[in-house]
Amino acid sequence: MIREIQAKSALHFHGNLTASNWDVNIYRGCGHCCIYCFARYSHSYLEDADFFGDIFVKTNIAECLDKDFSRRSWCRDPVNFCGVTDAYQPVEEQYQLMPEVLKVFIKHRNPLVLVTKSILPLRDIRLISELARVAQVTILVSVSTLNETISNITEPNSTHPAERLNMLDRFREAGCRTGILMMPVIPYLTDSEENLREVFELAQKTGVNVIEPDILNLRGSTREPFLNVIKKEFPDIYPDLSRLYKGSNSDKTYQNNMKVLIRKLYREYGPWPQYVPPERIDDSPKGQQLSLF
Ligand code: SF4
Predict the structure, then answer these.
(1) Is the separation of the CB atoms in 190 and 198 below 8 Å?
(2) Nearest CA to ligand 1 atom 8
(3) Where are the beta strands (DSSP E) in 89-236?
(4) Domain 2-269 has what CATH class?
(5) Coil/strand/helix, residue 78
(6) Judging by DSSP bridges, how do beta strands 27-28 and 55-58 pair with one another?
């Protein structure tokens, strides 16, 4: 079910994200249906709503964002798309909210960080490149493996990972910073040295500014549906995987071993700097943060 709703404001402050302190979510819910999706919790206050099937469309999001960016207290901090949904999920083909949103970014010369599993941003490359001429734009693609068979099961409605990564070339040429979020690395499924090496090699070839692997987290409502799919589709790894996750994180020894492997790959294929969030533009009133109320 797709339901149109009116947002009251666009910007949400988190203060705990690596990409940016501010999020805009133009949809609620996400049709990419990734089995490890951590964002399911954002639907939990809606009784009976299905995060993957019930998509809420904030049809007035561009107006709200324009209002938020027009406040005198707004410091043009980088804004992250999206925290708990993908702005370029399938429904965006129909609603086309992003072109209007990008025009608001251009008007206010506001830095943008976009994280996606889609190649639909290519539709808006002209606007994104126009924005990159007046503010910093970072395009981050999320992939956990280049293996199509695994990806078809774990991220059934997203674009094939190799296509997502190839898209980064176009955005680099358009003046954007680019990066790969290798998230999540799924223990026993996508955590082999061979799998990580394949993505690091491509990252090196593509010339991305950053690559960040992160191990699967199974917090809250993610755990049960994720393990159910693993049990059905990858029964061989299910016993070990469920033993590894007593809580939401994998056990410490496993994490330490993965850190050693990831450091080795950074040394071989890097150097890549630690992820540095884009800078805010400095010609607005200093030292104030937007009050949304
Ligand atoms: S793209 Fe992101 S928000 Fe959408 S289902 Fe996948 S993990 Fe969840």
Answers:
(1) no
(2) 37
(3) 112-116, 137-142, 177-185, 210-215
(4) alpha beta
(5) coil
(6) antiparallel
Q: Which two tokens stand for residue 3?
A: 């339901």
- The region, left, alpha or beta by phi > 0 then psi within -120 to 50, assigned to residue 139 is beta
Could you tell me the distance, in angstroms and rounded to a whole number, from the CA of residue 52 to the centre of ligand 1?
A: 9
- State residue 285's pLDDT score: 43
Q: How many CB atoms lie within 10 A of CB 84?
A: 19
Question: Rounded CA gap, 3 and 143, in Å?
Answer: 29
Ligand 1 atom 3 nearest Cα: 85
At 157, list the tokens. Answer: 């409605």
214 SS3 class: strand
Domain ranges of the chain: 2-269
How far away, in angstroms, is 80 Cα from ligand 1 center? 15
What gap in Å lies between CA 10 and CA 60, rounded to an integer? 9
Q: Verify whether ligand 1 is closer than 6 Å to residue 91 (CB atom).
A: no
Residue 32, ligand 1, Cβ within 6 A: yes
Local confidence pLDDT in tens for the 293 residues of the chain: 999 999 999 999 887 656 678 999 999 999 999 999 988 877 666 656 788 999 999 999 999 999 999 999 998 999 998 788 999 999 999 999 999 999 999 999 999 999 999 999 999 999 999 999 999 999 999 999 999 999 999 999 999 999 999 999 999 999 999 999 999 999 999 999 999 999 999 999 889 999 999 999 998 889 999 999 999 999 999 999 999 999 999 999 999 999 999 999 999 998 776 555 566 665 544 334 333 32
37 lines ligand 1 (CB under 6 A): yes
Cα 114 to its chain centre, rounded Å, is 7
pLDDT at 289: 38
43 Cβ inside 6 Å of ligand 1 = no
3-state helix, strand, coil in the chain (%, to 5): 40, 15, 45
